[in-house]
Amino acid sequence: MSRPLPAWLPGLAFVLIWSTGFIVGKAVVPVADTSLFLLARFALAGLMFMLAALLAGAAWPAPREVPRHLLAGALMQGIYLCAGYGAVAHGLSPSVMALLGALQPLLTALLAIPLLKELPSMRTWRGLALGAAGVGLVVLPAMRAGAPHAVSPWIVLVGLLAIVSITMGTLLQKTSIAKADIRASSAWQNAGAMLVAGTLVMVNGGPGALHWEPGATLWASLAYAALVLSGLGTWLLLALVRRGRAANAAALMFLAPPLAAVQAALLFGDHLVPLQWLGMAVAGAGVWLCQTQGRTQRAEAR
């Protein structure tokens, strides 16, 4: 008789996969326009989920629910990734983007109170504060190194738009669309993300006018982004959000920037200073507090 998987394994798998998004984004910028790359990524991932749903005979969402699935995908993947990749491509430091990303779990916790009636406990709030502080310590040296490079405030606002977008998309996963099969829902959500990326591609002149440099780097990045990041990574995120509280699931994202810093050190030779190692430990402690919370109280309806 097979033993059940440990409860912590999906969360660990998610953060390991999600953290590699920073590396993929860095690798793609020199070889392809980010919006065109994301359009191809969403198309491949959507096709994969559609085939998986059809082969499994999964029930598809009712027509009246389809707009919600499209909107959730447009927010959680389309706007989030197009804005985030676009901001980095236009000069925003990946470390600053990572720091902005640390706002997402906090924003999720705050908005979950009025929208989902989920009131995080004090233990969760302490974990969220530690997680944000840890991410700040990890990215601070990189921010100092890039301090002389001035970035337009509009680019920073685009980065903030990415964080607000994924927050709202995450909260939407806790509404009625949570009843749908994840495979069928993900197929529709990738279609919603395609609408965002496709609009940007057409606004920028169409596929023929955008940078696209075929080669091993592009094809490997596209395959990994579609199958692993948009495929397995997003599936794990949806499963975690559906299973638990929105704030506790979002807290896992605190581990993405520290893990990305380690990956950058291994792959690109980036140097890690003691402050960054301390930040990783602090962020890990914060996530541990959030994930070991026994229960989350619900805000009473007033």
Automatic annotation (TrEMBL):
InterPro entries assigned to the protein according to its UniProt record, in alphabetical order: AA-Vitamin_Transporters, EamA_dom, EmrE-like
Localization in the cell: Membrane
Short name of one Pfam family: EamA
GO-annotated cellular components: membrane
Transmembrane segments: 7-29, 35-58, 70-90, 96-116, 128-147, 153-172, 218-238, 250-269, 275-292
Domain EamA: 12-139, 154-289
SUPFAM superfamilies cross-referenced by the UniProt entry: Multidrug resistance efflux transporter EmrE
Keywords: Membrane, Transmembrane, Transmembrane helix
Membrane topology of the entry: Multi-pass membrane protein
Residues of the signal peptide: none
Regions annotated as coiled coil: none
Keyword field contains Transmembrane: yes
Family membership noted in the UniProt record: Belongs to the EamA transporter family.
Descriptive protein name: DMT family transporter
Taxonomic path: Bacteria, Pseudomonadati, Pseudomonadota, Betaproteobacteria, Burkholderiales
